[in-house]
């Protein structure tokens, strides 16, 4: 893990860990800190949430927020906090430039207009966290929503060796993935009535748009044609479990849903909706992501012979 941290930091320049606020939540068993990272002369920040009494190296889950929300709002909306409470993962929420991400192709917001190097920033955050907390470098996962989902595609394509797997909801890649040498397991999801996706190609439905993205990632990772499907209402899951180097691709379509993030119950923040505890994006994403380790070979955790069944 130390090698990962040093490699990332040396490549991208000087990193300064300047602690700002740290807050321990006694009732939840987590410690939250806002950290500043100076890289290339620009100061950026991120929120890190870790179990208060961490005694072993844990997976790192990086969550990229949607546009025009704070990381605190995204922490609530995406609802991964139970993973930290239960000692299953360290969570990190990088702060986008102007609450947006430069995912390439003109997307999006202030970050896109300023041409900030968000890909380098996110890679540096991983190294920075790993140099100060006990992180299992073979289990670094990436999640993105909306603009953050677009950024997740960009980041994985730029740095495929950093991630054991990634998951997105309601976002599309902005450019063709350049580095396809390393297969990266992907969980790709959206609502079948998402108006944001239908605007990308008026001739296609949101379902067809997502199916095309899934097909491209399956081709990227050399997946076999055989798939298995299951339903966890309102989600329809299709898994291609046999891809290059033990990778896998899963398509998850939320029937009748729009651009809102699927939660167990609705939260008082923008763009989320209730789907019940079994079908939440956080639950299904973690079930998929946590099956993988080793950023190069993607061996299954604990020697399991297949991705999780639902």
Short description:
This protein is 27% helix and 29% strand. Helix 5 packs across helix 6.
What is the CATH T-level topology?
Answer: Rossmann fold
Task: Profile the largest sheet.
Answer: 11 strands, mixed
DSSP helical segment count: 9
Cα gyration radius (Å): 18 Å
Euclidean distance between termini CA atoms? 32 Å
Identify the strand order in the major beta sheet: 1-2-3-5-4-6-7-8-11-10-9
Low-confidence parts lasting 5 or more residues at pLDDT below 50? 1-13, 17-21, 302-310
Question: How would you state the average pLDDT, rounded?
Answer: 88
Task: Describe the global form.
Answer: globular
Query: Domains counted in the coordinates: how many?
Result: 1
CATH class: Alpha Beta
What percent of residues adopt helix (DSSP H or I)?
25-40%
CATH superfamily: Alpha/Beta hydrolase fold, catalytic domain
Structure description:
- α1 runs antiparallel to α5 and α5 packs across α6.
- The protein has one domain (2-303): Rossmann fold (3-Layer(aba) Sandwich), CATH 3.40.50.
- A hairpin with a 2-residue loop joins β9 and β10.
- It contains 9 helices and 15 strands.
- The chain is globular.
- With 310 residues, the protein is α/β, with parallel strands linked by helices.
- Helix content is 27%, strand content 29%.
Secondary-structure map:
Elements lengths: L1 H11 L4 E9 L4 E10 L2 E10 L6 E7 L6 H8 L2 H5 L4 E5 L14 H6 L3 H13 L4 E11 L1 H12 L6 E5 L16 E6 L3 H4 L7 H15 L7 E5 L2 E6 L8 E6 L6 E3 L8 E3 L6 H9 L2 E2 L5 E2 L10
Parallel strand pairs: 4-5, 4-6, 6-7, 7-8, 8-11, 12-13
Antiparallel strand pairs: 1-2, 2-3, 3-5, 9-10, 10-11, 14-15
Helix pairs in contact: 1-5, 5-6
């Amino acid at each position: 893990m130390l090698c990962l941290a040093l490699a990332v930091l040396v490549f991208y320049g000087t990193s300064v860990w300047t602690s700002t606020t740290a807050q321990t939540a006694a009732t939840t068993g987590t410690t939250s800190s806002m950290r500043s990272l100076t890289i290339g002369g620009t100061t950026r920040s991120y929120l890190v949430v870790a179990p208060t009494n961490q005694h072993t190296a844990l997976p790192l889950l990086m969550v990229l927020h949607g546009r025009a929300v704070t990381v605190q709002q995204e922490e609530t909306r995406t609802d991964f906090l139970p993973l930290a409470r239960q000692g299953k993962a360290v969570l990190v929420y990088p702060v986008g430039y102007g609450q947006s991400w430069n995912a390439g192709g003109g997307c999006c917001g202030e970050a896109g207009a300023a041409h900030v190097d968000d890909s380098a920033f996110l890679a540096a955050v991983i190294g920075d966290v790993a140099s100060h907390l006990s992180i299992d470098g073979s289990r670094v996962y990436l999640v993105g929503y909306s603009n953050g989902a677009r950024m997740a595609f960009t980041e994985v394509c730029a740095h495929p060796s950093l991630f054991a797997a990634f998951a997105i909801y309601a976002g599309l890649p902005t450019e063709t993935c350049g580095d396809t040498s390393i297969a990266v397991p992907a969980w790709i999801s959206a609502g079948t009535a998402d108006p944001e996706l239908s605007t990308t190609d008026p001739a296609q439905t949101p379902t067809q748009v997502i199916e095309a993205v899934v097909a491209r990632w399956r081709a990227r990772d050399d997946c076999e044609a055989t798939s298995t499907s299951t339903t966890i209402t309102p989600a329809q899951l299709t898994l291609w479990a046999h891809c290059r180097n033990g990778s896998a691709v899963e398509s998850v379509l939320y029937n009748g849903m729009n651009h809102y993030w699927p939660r167990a119950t609705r939260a008082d923040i923008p763009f989320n909706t209730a789907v019940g505890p079994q079908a939440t994006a956080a639950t299904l994403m973690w079930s998929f992501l946590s099956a993988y380790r080793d950023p190069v070979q993607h061996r299954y955790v604990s020697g399991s012979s297949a991705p999780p069944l639902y």
